[in-house]
Amino acid sequence: TVTMTDVEGRTHALEDVEDGISLMELGRRHGVAGIMGDCGGGCACATCHVYIGEEWWEKVGGPDDVEFAMLDMVADVMRDNSRLGCQVRMSPELDGLAVTVAPASS
Ligand code: FES
């Protein structure tokens, strides 16, 4: 299960989490508000920006340099627990993950 809170504050419990799917793909499949994925997962748009639940941060891990540079483009809404959803791929050890969709950068 992935618990995804959308930009309108609604919480979705997503059950069909196959190995290797990204958080962006998962969110889009379910029409989770605020997950756009405009660039198709290429780490080039930041419309898949999510905040990782605090207790999950260590397991998920931080962004690499390319992803960090993209996050820096949305610095006004970036937080210490920001990741791009397309760059986080699910694995059994992330079962139970909780994330919140970040608001769009202004
Ligand atoms: Fe564009 Fe993730 S879908 S950066």
TrEMBL record:
Its cofactor is [2Fe-2S] cluster. Residues 1-105 form the 2Fe-2S ferredoxin-type domain. Signal peptide: none annotated. It holds the Pfam family Fer2. Keywords: 2Fe-2S, Iron, Iron-sulfur, Metal-binding. The keyword DNA damage does not apply. CDD domains: fer2 (cd00207). Belongs to the adrenodoxin/putidaredoxin family. This is Ferredoxin, 2Fe-2S. It comes from Novosphingobium panipatense.
